[in-house]
Amino acid sequence: MKGSAIHYSDAELFWIHDNHRRPRREAHEEFQAVWDRPDVSLTNFNSLCKRKGWMTGRSGQFRSGQEPHNKGKPMPSHPNSRRTQFKAGAKPHTYRGPGHERIDSKEGYVILIVDEPNPWTGASTRPVHKHRWLWEKKNGPVPDGCVLKCLDGDKTNTDPGNWKAVPRSVLPRLAGRWNIPYDSAPDELKPALLAIAEIEHAIRERRQDRKRTA
After folding, report:
1. Does the structure show a pLDDT above 90 at 94?
2. Residue 95 in contact with residue 73, Cβ under 8 Å?
3. What percent of the chain shows pLDDT beyond 90?
4. Does residue 109 contact residue 155 with C-beta atoms inside 8 Å?
5. Phi, psi for 201 (deg, rounded to 5)
6. Which residues fall within 8 angstroms of residue 133, CB to CB, at 6 or more apart?
7. Do the Cβ atoms of 165 and 143 come closer than 8 Å?
């Protein structure tokens, strides 16, 4: 009857206590066979042991040096799962090898995967800003204190001729802090705006040099 208590004899309780450290399922099956108690389910058996505080002493974790029960055995699998398993030499669909490009969603630059060792992760490839990578291939490293400025305003145009190394302190002037923003200016004005920004920067640097030497 549902909800009615299950009674155990003293002998049964003694047997359960004597075997409580064995795996629960194994001990329960033997209990049913030895004492002819099909009315005691595994749930009932577990509940009794928990109420009495008769724990197995196992945490469910592997102990140091313990071998898994399936060591050396082939892993069974369904034919459908085997069909979708990775084969030797296969690459995941997310693999992006040398030559792959994407647009940086934050800055808008082209990111290129190149066949060069990654100094940070040790991988055989690394991501680079394509415009800088191509520019340095042609012109050498970007000078200290300088950044590459896109001349036509299209950051996806990675041709080295579309980029110029300018002092980092020139960027605020090109951003429109004191005049027309460079990137939104008409194409015919861009060369003049860049030239003015560079001249103003050179004048400022010369004044500071004079103050330092005065």
Report:
1. no
2. no
3. 39
4. yes
5. -65, -45
6. 112, 114
7. yes
What number of H helices and E strands is found in the chain? 7, 5
Q: Is the pLDDT of residue 152 over 60?
A: yes
14 token code pair: 């003694």
Nearest to 130 by CA among 162, 153, 159, 107: 159
Residue with token string 């004005």: 189
SS3 148: strand
- The alpha carbon torsion through 48, 51, 53, 59 (nearest 10 deg) reads 80
Q: Which residue has the tokens 């020139």?
A: 170
pLDDT recorded at residue 85: 75
Beta strands 146-150 and 163-167: pairing type? antiparallel
CA angle in degrees (0–180, nearest 5) for 196-198-199: 65
Cα separation of 196 and 173, whole Å? 9
Q: Are strands 110-114 and 101-103 parallel, antiparallel or unpaired?
A: antiparallel
The predicted structure's pLDDT at residue 3: 61
Q: How far apart are CA 21 and CA 49, in angstroms?
A: 10
Is residue 60 within 8 Å of 94, Cβ to Cβ? no
User: Which alpha helices (H) appear in 54-112, and where do they start and end?
Assistant: 79-83
Distance CA(25)–CA(20), nearest Å, equals 11
> Using an 8 Å Cβ cutoff, are 114 and 128 in contact?
yes
